Amino acid sequence: MADTATKKPEKKIGTAKKNPTGTERPLLRTITGVVASDKGDKTIKVVVNFQTRHPKYGKYLKYRTVLHAHDEKNEAGEGDTVEIAECRPLSRTKHYRLLKIVTKAPERAVQVSAEEVMTGKAPEAR
């Protein structure tokens, strides 16, 4: 009885899935981005845009990074806004897994292509 009184409650960051052993695994860093490509089997390429302030001059600089994420059910499509979370390395470049699709892209955005998402301008006619 004395043991239960002195124990501190465990801190939970968040939970996503249960392991086969029944324990819940914590959510690590979660990121929201736009799917640039869904051509790989069970793999999506997510573009994450962010801004940071220059340490000396104070100007806000725009950056983007491209992350590969695991999409178990192949449910995300190009242009979808998705939420991904860090996980153990699944391959050489895949260190994230898909949590949920925040918003589905309209049909036109699917036809636009990843080039517009990555560069910010429409692709040239060929």
In short:
13% of the residues lie in helices and 42% in strands.
Structure description:
With 126 residues, the chain is mainly beta. The chain has a single domain, classed as OB fold (Dihydrolipoamide Acetyltransferase, E2P), CATH 2.40.50.140. It is 13% helix and 42% strand. The chain is built from three helices and seven strands, in the order αβββββββαα. The strands form two sheets. The protein has a five-stranded mixed barrel with strand order 3-4-5-7-6. Strands 1-2 form a two-stranded antiparallel sheet. A hairpin with a 7-residue loop joins strand 6 and strand 7. The longest helix is centred in the C-terminal third of the chain and has 6 residues. About 5% of the residues have low confidence.
